[in-house]
Amino acid sequence: MAADLQKEMQESLARVEAVFIPGRLCDRRDEMLRLRESGDTMFFSGGIRWSVLLPDYDKKLKGESESLDAAFGDMSSCLSFLAGDHGEDAQVVCAVEASPEEAGEKP
């Protein structure tokens, strides 16, 4: 049973990590939404700092969310907003890191 859960968590981690490979805005947004719907983001708890970068437009949005699931919701909303200005095919780079409080640091 524990081995099954470990395997499921590793597979979820691999799917989540794929979101952070640079790619098309629409692909990253859609993948974030799929991961939230599948429950893959629920394995990861704790505060998250996130950023969305459009390198071709020198534009970066960033924020903080209470979990990876919430971060993917916030990031996908930003990506939908950016798609209106820059198109679905714009290149995007997404990143997350633990909030300083989660990492044991002072803000």
Relevant terms:
single chain, alpha+beta, four-stranded antiparallel beta sheet, 4 strands, globular
Task: Give me the secondary-structure topology.
Elements: H1 2-18, E1 23-24, H2 25-38, E2 45-54, E3 59-67, H3 68-86, E4 91-98
Antiparallel strand pairs: 1-4, 2-3, 2-4
Commentary on this structure:
The chain has one domain (2-98). Helices cover 47% and strands 27% of the residues. The chain contains three helices and four strands. It has a four-stranded antiparallel sheet with strand order 1-4-2-3. A hairpin with a 4-residue loop joins strand 2 (45-54) and strand 3 (59-67). Helix 2 runs antiparallel to helix 3. The longest helix is centred in the C-terminal third of the chain and has 19 residues, at 68-86. The protein is globular. The mean pLDDT is 89.
Q: Please describe the biggest sheet, giving its number of strands, its sense, and whether it closes into a barrel.
A: 4 strands, antiparallel
Strand order of the largest sheet: 1-4-2-3
Order of helices and strands: HEHEEHE
Our measurement of the CA-to-CA distance between the termini, rounded to an integer number of angstroms, reads 39 Å
Alpha-beta classification: alpha+beta
What is the percent of helical residues? 40-55%
Give the C-alpha Rg: 14 Å
Strand content: 25-35%
Number of strands: 4
The total domain count is 1
Shape category: globular
Mean pLDDT, nearest integer?
Answer: 89
| Unreliable residue runs | none
Count, helices:
3
